[in-house]
Amino acid sequence: MTLPAVLAVALLGLQAAALPGRDDPAILRRACPDYTAYASTPHAPYSGGPLNLPFQRPAEACRTFSSPAVEEVIDDITSRLVDKDLAQLFRNAFPNTLDTTIRWHTNGSTSSGTNSKRDGAQWTGVQTFIVTGDINAEWLRDSTNQLRNYQKLAAKDKSLYSLILGAINTQSEFVIQSPYCNAFQPPALSGIKPEVSTQKDTVHPAYDESFVFECKYELDSLAHFLQLGTEFYENTGSTEFLTDRWYKALETVLKTIDAESQPTFNTHGQFIQNQYTFQRETTIGTETLNLAGVGNPLNSETGLIRSAFRPSDDATILGFFIPPNAMMSVQLQKTAKIIKAAGGPASLVADLQERGTKLAKAVRDHGIVQHPKYGDVYAFEVDGYGSRILMDDANIPSLLSLPYLGFVEKSDTVYKNTRKMITNKASNPYYLVGPQFHGIGGPHIGLENAWPMSLLVQAMTSDDDDEIIGNINLVRNSSLLGLVHESINVTNIKDYTRPWFAWANSVFAQTVLKIAAERPHLIFGSNAKPYIV
Ligand SMILES: *[C@@H]1O[C@H](CO)[C@@H](O)[C@H](O)[C@H]1NC(C)=O
Ligand SMILES: *[C@@H]1O[C@H](CO)[C@@H](O)[C@H](O)[C@H]1NC(C)=O
Ligand SMILES: *[C@@H]1O[C@H](CO)[C@@H](O)[C@H](O)[C@H]1NC(C)=O
């Protein structure tokens, strides 16, 4: 494909005819404002509610993808929502990934889907490249979560089906080539210029900077790659993504987690060099790994898989980081089911199933620890020597999200104990409280900023109407530009980070849709019927 991305993307939306000079990509690019700037200022029409939230969707011609099924859900939900500000937030947030982040989508039936050897990948078949928002790169984790809302609709909307199938294919290529990396450049075939990273990193295994944007090894990135496929199957019943390339990506995931299950010392007490090391020239402790890029020592025989970084992209303190291990155990078992349903190799099905159940047991055996006040709780990180970190961070996977990940029931006793611990200022150092905002934050932004995403996960894992609606309303109150932000200053609700963070908007829309289906009275008024997508 030789067309510059902006034009290609606008043509996909079939809206380009509305703009002058549609054949001139430069004119088109000038006509569509940069969305980071656009999202930072309010636009009409306003909600008419007490907060008078602005309308922040880009002009139709500038949207990066469109789906009639998505527009229908927006109309259905916003016409039922009693609170005009919540309705405006949903109107902006639900389509945010489609509106702003689909940088490249190529339909496999056109010639642009053919192989390119330029970046060593095989961009065969439908492909989709999805940026996180204000950074022009794709995170495996973010993109899986950005698409989560549309999975159900993919069963009835062919364009969404193709979009998500393409995302799985593209992620497969990323994982095959650089399984230790978290964020990726636009595929060479797209013709979009790679983003230049200003960081000075020394990483092993080495990677190609025109392919990879950042190479922090995060176990949850690989679990999210699997999740994109398992959700697609669960929602559409399709196994079309089980291509040779996807199987190769799966094999790469398994090799990577085997390598990262190695202890720091062998049974004779000799040091074993970890396959992955990362060092950054930085003054920020959470942006690099100590001990020459290896990270702190980890004991053998736990059965846990190490993760060098967290889903916040901050370094782990103790590498046996519990939430992504729990998530991986769920995804391995779900993947086994799909391969079985598709009539795939029985030995692989058995291997995945066994890995998944063993990992779940390792999480329980080594991740559950005694707390003096709360009893048995899940630790955030352990090292296999008995050390543990007790805290939670807003990013998913987190301890708070364990039921959302499908690892435990909300009613699980250890989860309930853990939840009490991490939503309390006295027992979670990153539970941040101020006069205007509160919630779980994390070291990524610092000790004065809580994250709306944590309030939304708290709402989605709660059975308490007051907790659910209180959290939704607090997120609404902190979204004064009509979009959900990364973090909010707890003493000044108007002070936020990241005007354009698609993942957070997706989690907001997921929460509203869950309430609409399960507790419609909370948002649609008493006696309202459930709305199920
Ligand atoms: C691919 O494009 C062709 C021609 O525009 C269209 O008929 C077909 O439905 C598209 N396929 C997918 C999967 O979107
Ligand atoms: C949200 O803000 C309104 C004022 O606009 C206030 O009455 C309400 O208590 C706030 N809700 C929460 C949950 O903070
Ligand atoms: C948070 O807001 C307060 C009050 O405006 C301000 O003093 C403080 O510096 C802000 N914190 C950060 C991290 O920006």
In short:
The chain is α+β, with helices and mostly antiparallel strands. It is built from 18 helices and 17 strands.
Name its key features.
533 residues, alpha+beta, three-stranded antiparallel β-sheet, 18 helices, binds 2-acetamido-2-deoxy-beta-D-glucopyranose, Glycoside hydrolase family 125 protein, GH125, catalytic activity
Describe the main β-sheet briefly.
3 strands, antiparallel
State the helix count: 18
Indicate the multimeric state: single chain
Range of strand content: 5-15%
Question: Strand pairing plus helix content: what structural class?
Answer: alpha+beta
Using DSSP, what is the number of strands?
Answer: 17
Gross morphology is: globular
Low-confidence stretches: 1-23, 110-114
What distance separates the N and C termini?
A: 35 Å
Mean of pLDDT: 93
**Can you give the helix content as a percent range?**
25-40%
Strand order of the largest sheet: 3-4-6
Listed once per kind, the bound small molecules are: 2-acetamido-2-deoxy-beta-D-glucopyranose
Radius of gyration: 22 Å
